[in-house]
Design a protein that fits this description.
- The structure holds two protein chains of two kinds.
- Chain A is mainly alpha-helical.
- Chain A has twelve helices and seven strands.
- Chain A has a domain of 204 residues: MetI-like fold (Orthogonal Bundle), CATH 1.10.3720.
- The longest helix of chain A is centred in the first third of the chain and has 33 residues.
- Chain A is globular, with a radius of gyration of 29 Å.
- By secondary structure, chain B is of the alpha/beta class.
- The longest helix of chain B has 19 residues.
- In chain B, α3 packs across α9.
- Chain B is globular, with a radius of gyration of 21 Å.
- The relative contact order of chain B is 0.15.
- Chain B folds into two domains: 206 residues, Periplasmic binding protein-like II (D-Maltodextrin-Binding Protein, domain 2); 96 residues, D-Maltodextrin-Binding Protein, domain 2 (3-Layer(aba) Sandwich).
- The chains are: A mainly alpha, B alpha/beta.
- Chains A and B meet through α2 and α11 of A and α1, α4, α6 and β10 of B.
- Chain B: It holds the Pfam family SBP_bac_3.
- Chain B: InterPro entries: Bact_solute-bind_prot3 (IPR051455), Solute-binding_3/MltF_N (IPR001638).
- Chain B: One of its GO terms (biological process) is amino acid transport.
- Chain B: This is General L-amino acid-binding periplasmic protein AapJ.
- Chain B: Belongs to the bacterial solute-binding protein 3 family.
Chain lengths: 410, 338
């Protein structure tokens, strides 16, 4: 009888780390890890050494010191006596504002241009191609500066609007387009519930959001009735009423009145001042990113097989319903992931604001504050952390939406 | 992948923070050129001429230092800096000295860790407005839109001035003097404010300088001077005493015209010490004996530099005023060469 003997148990040899496939991958990973740690150590050590050579310390205390400079566009209370930290917050809000406005406009432009680029109408098709290629292939900074220069050099000065001047307001004397920006009518609350205008607006927005939630309930009910009986009850007037009446009531209760801009002294007062810098940055970011989104939308639509639209036609759906009910919902699955990175690009590109003097976080915290306090390292780290957090937040929100549009597989 | 990107970014950051070594003099000598930070372009103070050669009052200081250290006033690499980039450029060692109408303030000296070696122009912040605006005082500027170079002391002074006078304004932040000029001329701002000398220099380049007025208010003290990093006192001494040599030369009537004659030896021991024919001043700085002579020959003494670049016979037309020699009622005063 033969017995199977175990193979001789050789001791672990060092060369196995390199030649034995069981260990080799671990060896390589360990070496890579050590190199990374050494690299990081060198960088941190280098930074510490250089800081001490310059006689500087690492301290975020400057954030609570008075900033001393003024900011033109501020969404929250701020004066030159406020702290550097508050200046940073004003900048952060300005960044978020332009990124938010930019994402919305870029999406609208992109979807329209992307769909129209597939049009069978030759002129529309080519016009959109010119838009996409023109904006996609010219650096964003040039567009920002071009739009800004157009506004600054091409529009009349505010004092030309004075009596005897040769400029006049448009849209029934309510909107003034000047070389310092566009002045539009604004809403003020005469008996607002809160002291600050921002809080009053927040109240209106909360009511609007609540209305939207109720509207969803109404829609769900309509869906359920349609499922059960095949007839969809008419709900558009309920929806419209729900949207308008509560918000309108709040506005009336807070004494909302329109305020029209008028010229006084050097500038227009009252109303809302959309500064050149905001307009230039917003439009340029939207047009530029919109061109990329157009291509994404076009690719998404082309990715849906022709059989889908043919099947929809066979069922008797008209072309626009085919697009809205069959093609776009499926195309969204392809569109959204690259759309997220376009939103992130837009947000980060908004840091080009300094080119036109828009006071975003790069200009306040990353610009003037660093310059006045000499805290480059701290300021840049904070700035980097802010953009990181903002980008992660945007992609988190978009990922939730993405997961909901993805194909549900069981 | 994520790690390697992070590593790359930090490597760049680390390298950028690297260069600030100690012995600037050795670095400059080894390199053979002086890296001097100047403005991105302000006529009279620092701007390239038609041939692309930098010229101006601040440039003159750079050239004098290069002449003193390297013997060649043209051995200067000019690095244009904005109000925002200048301090980082100096702190990181990208430039050896900064001569860029920079105001000497407490926090820049103490907190930002720079060494101001002296004052080459005593200035104050002023306001320029178009004549047809009909404004005669800065106090009439309530509600005006003001163009302002960002990252400067003028930005802080402006906030203080309007706040203490209880009037409002709309700041338009701008990176460089050229952009400010363009915005101001386009009427995107009513007022341009910066150092009065800068306003005069900017106005001189306008097509119709007479259509613009400088308001009478000077709202701050702006002692402008060259600066170096903290921590390298030998280099600081060289720049300081080069500037002092230019000032002393004017006081002693040593000009670029008569310097050859005087350096043969004179009866005035201070001139002899200055020009290196007597004493060991150059060796004490670690330079040649004729360092100051070279510096003065580079562009003339302080008064010559002033007259040639920004004086009353130039389009900029600044009077000496506070910047006259102390013997003529001004503030320009050099410690003795002894």
């Amino acid at each position: 009888m033969t017995t199977l003997t175990d193979p001789p148990k050789a001791g672990f040899r060092l060369s196995q780390l390199l030649y034995d496939t069981r260990y080799r991958s671990i060896t390589i990973q360990v070496i890579a890890m050590i190199l990374v740690i050494l690299g990081l150590y060198w960088l941190v050590n280098n930074t510490i050494q250089n800081l001490s050579a310059l006689g500087k310390d690492f301290d975020f205390g400057f954030l609570s010191q008075p900033a001393g400079y003024d900011i033109n566009q501020r969404l929250v209370e701020y004066s030159s006596q406020s702290t550097h930290g508050q200046a940073a917050i004003v900048g952060i809000l300005n960044t978020i504002l332009v990124a938010f406005l930019g994402c919305i406009l870029a999406t609208i432009l992109g979807v329209i241009a992307g769909v129209l680029r597939l049009s069978k109408n030759w002129i529309v098709n080519k016009l959109m191609a010119v838009y996409v290629e023109g904006f996609r292939n010219v650096p964003l900074l040039l567009w920002i500066i071009a739009i800004f220069a157009l506004m600054t050099e091409g529009m009349p000065q505010p004092r030309d609007f004075k009596v005897g001047g040769d400029a006049s307001m448009i849209l029934g004397e309510t909107v003034a387009v000047t070389n310092r920006g566009v002045y539009v009518p604004g809403v003020v609350f005469e008996s607002g519930w809160f002291a600050s205008a921002a809080m009053n607006w927040l109240a209106v927005i909360v009511v609007l959001v609540a209305s939207l939630l109720v509207i969803r309930v109404v829609r769900r009910r309509a869906d359920a009735i349609q499922e059960a009986t095949g007839d969809r009850p008419t709900t558009w007037w309920q929806q419209l009423g729900l949207l308008i009446i509560p918000a309108g009531l709040v506005l009336v209760l807070m004494g909302a009145t329109m305020q029209y801009p008028y010229i006084r002294g050097f500038n227009f007062t009252d109303g809302i001042h959309l500064r050149n810098s905001l307009i230039a940055l917003w439009l340029a970011l939207s047009l530029y990113t919109g061109a990329f989104i157009a291509e994404i939308v076009r690719a998404g639509i082309l990715a849906i097989s022709k059989g889908q639209s043919e099947a929809a036609s066979a069922l008797g759906l008209r072309p626009n319903r085919t697009m809205n009910l069959v093609i776009l919902p499926q195309a969204m699955r392809v569109i959204i992931p690259p759309l997220i990175s376009q939103y992130l690009n837009l947000t980060k590109n908004s840091s080009l604001a300094i080119a036109v003097g828009y006071m975003d976080v790069r200009s306040t915290l990353g610009g003037i504050t660093i310059n006045q306090t000499g805290r480059e390292l701290e300021g840049m780290l904070l700035l980097g952390a802010f953009y990181l957090v903002l980008s992660l937040l945007i992609s988190a929100v978009m990922n939730v939406y993405n997961n909901r549009t993805q194909l549900q597989e069981r | 992948m994520k790690k390697s990107v992070l590593l790359g970014a930090m490597t760049v950051a680390g390298l950028a923070a690297g260069a600030a070594g100690a012995a600037t003099l050795d670095d400059v000598k080894a390199r053979g050129t002086l890296n001097c930070g100047v403005t991105t372009g302000l006529t009279g103070f620092a701007a390239p001429d038609a041939n692309g050669v930098w010229d101006g009052f601040d440039v003159g200081v750079c050239r004098a230092v290069a002449a003193a250290v390297l013997g060649d006033p043209m051995a200067v690499e000019f690095v244009p800096t904005t109000g925002q980039t200048r301090f980082t450029a100096l702190a990181s060692g990208e430039i050896d000295m900064l001569a860029r109408n920079t105001t000497w303030t407490f926090s820049r000296d103490v907190d930002l860790k720079f060494e101001f070696v002296g004052v080459n122009y005593y200035d104050g912040q002023g306001f320029m407005v178009p004549r047809d605006l009909g404004v005669s005082s800065a106090k009439d500027l309530d509600g005006a839109t003001v163009c302002i170079q960002t990252g400067t002391t003028t930005e802080l002074n402006l906030a203080d001035y309007f706040r203490s006078n209880n009037i409002s304004y709309e700041p338009v932040p701008i990176e460089t003097n050229a952009e400010a000029q363009q915005q101001y001329l386009a009427g995107a701002c009513d007022v341009y404010t910066t150092d009065a000398s800068g306003l005069a220099a900017t106005r001189a380049t306008f097509e119709a300088p007479g259509d613009h007025v400088l308001l009478p208010e000077i709202v701050s003290k702006e002692p402008l001077g060259p600066l170096v990093r903290h921590g390298d006192n030998e280099w600081g001494d060289i720049v300081r005493w080069t500037l002092n040599a230019l000032v002393t030369a004017e006081e002693l009537n040593v000009t670029s015209a008569n310097i050859e004659e005087l350096s043969a030896g004179t009866n005035n021991p201070e001139i002899n010490r200055l020009l290196g024919t007597e004493g060991e001043l150059g060796a004490m700085l670690g330079l040649d004996a004729d360092w100051a002579k070279n510096a003065i020959m580079a562009g003339g003494n302080y008064g010559e530099l002033f007259e040639k670049n920004i004086g009353e016979n130039t389009p900029i037309g600044l009077a000496r005023g506070l910047n006259a020699q102390w013997t003529e009622g001004g503030l320009i005063y050099s410690p003795p060469f002894r």
